[in-house]
């Protein structure tokens, strides 16, 4: 009943509807990991896939003992799947990589070598995004320059979620109470010793992107509000600016009144109403974003639910007596 020894390396892969990409990914990843000659595990996090991903994973797992499958009960999003993987990974070093081979897994060897030199974080940085669509490239460009402004200079541009973390960095990350972590911003913020490897972003090996515009907007909004109170301050400044403007408009109106120039004034009123309406809406919207976040933080709901973990199942088979069972309800 001994607990399995922690492997040197864990590779965490968030997976959502990747039935076509998975076999190709495994085919390319496995020789690389085997070639390192160290103990490893691959933690495939099935993020509530609705296609045949679950069956494909089970099949792959039967042929690859190091593959561990963690299933989330429902689709919780890329970052939540990553969180689940990071919490569950046991390795001394943990690499996170997408399931679609856009990030070349060969770089893991280089990352591991750098980590062994003493770096806690080795970030994969894309030096060429020509394989992404024009839309993806331009939205990503806008995203990174906005993050640059909000979070500070040290956010590496075009650094996605392909990176290696040391055990210390993983423990630091997983100890954070964030409900919706955005790792590409949090990781540099931790302040661990870090370096990067560059690579060319490749074409998606199969299937289509699982990041439609709605999820990209979600990620951007999470990134801004998670990481900075700047938008709230923006609302304050806009509010102050509006007050100043309103003051001058008031003076102007009073003067016009005294001069007896009683123009209908429809346009100025209309402009003012629209303008202040807009200001209020923007401010209320921003406040709502934070209030919503406070609400979910107070609720304390986890970002994901583990449906099963093949590593746990293995434990259950080994020691059934121990794992049964405390009464479900107390009090
Ligand atoms: N993914 C996920 N849950 C989601 C969306 C995506 O686990 O809700 C996974 C997906 O399977 C892939 C990774 O996150 O391994 C990145 O997604 P994708 O490649 O579609 O994003 P893109 O590279 O187009 O930005
Ligand atoms: Mg991709």
TrEMBL record:
Q: Where is the Glycosyltransferase 2-like domain?
A: 10-172
> TM segments?
234-255, 267-287
Q: What is its main location?
A: membrane
Could you tell me which Pfam families the record lists for this protein? Glycos_transf_2 (PF00535)
Keywords, sorted A to Z: Glycosyltransferase, Membrane, Transferase, Transmembrane, Transmembrane helix
CDD domains in UniProt: DPM1_like_bac
How does the UniProt record describe the way this protein sits in the membrane? Multi-pass membrane protein
Q: Is the keyword Transcription in the record? A: no
In terms of SUPFAM superfamilies, this protein maps to: Nucleotide-diphospho-sugar transferases (SSF53448)
Q: Which GO terms describe its molecular function?
A: glycosyltransferase activity
What's a GO cellular component annotated to this UniProt protein? Answer: plasma membrane
Q: Where in the cell is it found?
A: Membrane
What the record says about family reads: Belongs to the glycosyltransferase 2 family.
Q: Under what name is this protein listed?
A: Dolichol-phosphate mannosyltransferase
């Amino acid at each position: 009943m001994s607990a399995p020894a922690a492997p040197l390396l864990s590779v965490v892969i968030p997976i959502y509807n990747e039935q076509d990409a998975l076999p190709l990914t495994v085919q390319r990843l496995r020789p690389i990991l085997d070639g390192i000659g160290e103990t490893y595990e691959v933690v495939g996090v099935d993020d509530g896939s609705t296609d045949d991903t679950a069956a494909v994973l089970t099949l792959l797992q039967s042929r690859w003992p190091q593959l561990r499958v963690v299933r989330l009960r429902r689709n919780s999003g890329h970052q939540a799947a990553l969180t689940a993987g990071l919490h569950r990974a046991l390795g001394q070093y943990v690499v996170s990589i997408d399931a679609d081979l856009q990030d070349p897994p060969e770089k893991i060897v280089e990352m591991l070598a750098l980590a062994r030199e003493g770096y806690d974080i080795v970030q994969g940085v894309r030096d060429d995004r020509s394989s992404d669509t024009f839309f993806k490239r331009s939205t990503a460009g806008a995203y990174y320059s906005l993050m640059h402004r909000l979070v500070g200079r040290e956010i590496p541009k075009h650094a996605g979620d392909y990176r290696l973390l040391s055990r210390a960095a993983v423990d630091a990350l997983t100890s954070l109470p964030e409900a919706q972590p955005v790792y590409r911003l949090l990781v540099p913020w931790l302040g661990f010793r870090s370096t990067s490897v560059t690579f060319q972003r490749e074409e998606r090996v199969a299937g289509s992107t699982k990041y439609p515009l709605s999820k990209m907007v979600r990620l951007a909004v999470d990134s801004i509000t998670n990481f900075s109170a700047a938008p709230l301050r923006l609302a304050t400044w806009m509010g102050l600016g509006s007050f100043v403007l309103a003051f001058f408009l008031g003076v102007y109106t009073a003067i016009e009144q005294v001069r007896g120039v009683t123009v209908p004034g429809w346009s100025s009123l209309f402009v003012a109403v629209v303008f202040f309406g807009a200001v209020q809406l923007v401010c209320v919207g921003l406040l709502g974003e934070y209030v919503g976040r406070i609400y979910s933080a107070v609720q304390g709901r986890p970002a994901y639910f583990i449906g099963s973990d093949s590593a746990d199942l293995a434990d259950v088979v080994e020691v059934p007596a121990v794992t049964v069972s405390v009464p479900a309800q107390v009090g």
